[in-house]
Amino acid sequence: MLRFEEETDEQREALQAEILKTEAATEAADQEQRARQVLTNEEITLAVQEQLPEWMIVARIETSECDFDRSVDALAALHDAGIPNAVITATIGCEP
Questions:
Q1: CA-CA distance, 51 to 87, in Å (whole number)?
Q2: In the prediction, which pLDDT does 14 show?
Q3: Could you report the per-residue pLDDT of 60-94, keeping only the tens digit for each?
Q4: Are 38 and 67 spatial neighbours (Cβ–Cβ below 8 Å)?
Q5: Assign residue 57 a region: left if phi > 0, alpha if psi is -120 to 50, beta otherwise?
Q6: Of 35, 96, 78, whose CA–CA distance to 86 is shortest?
Q7: What is the DSSP letter of 64?
Q8: pTM (global) more than 0.70
Q9: Residue 48 burial (CB < 10 Å; 0-12/13-18/19+)?
């Protein structure tokens, strides 16, 4: 009877290990999906409103796909919204 309980504990531990691996893989896939998210003017405005550091926003722009509206009106709107100049410049330099 003791051997049966040991096997059950071993099976339970193996199942828990598999669950943890699956959760880790799911989290990694979610992070990758977020990293591939296409950035827009609205997301940059939200990042500034959330008070993320300027360097962090610029780094995200430099490492992400982007679809920024670079029209004069859109750039003026970013400026009027208090977006730092370095962030606006990074949006201009980001290739879609």
A1: 13
A2: 77
A3: 999 999 999 999 999 999 999 999 999 999 999 98
A4: yes
A5: alpha
A6: 78
A7: S
A8: no
A9: middle
What residues form DSSP beta bridges with 88? none
* 65 token code pair: 């796909």
Per-residue pLDDT tens over the stretch 21-59: 887 777 776 666 655 679 999 999 999 999 999 999 999
Count of all residues that appear for the chain in the document: 96
Give the separation between CA 57 and CA 63, rounded to whole angstroms: 10
Rounded CA-CA distance 42/48 in Å is: 10
Domain ranges of the chain: 1-36, 38-96
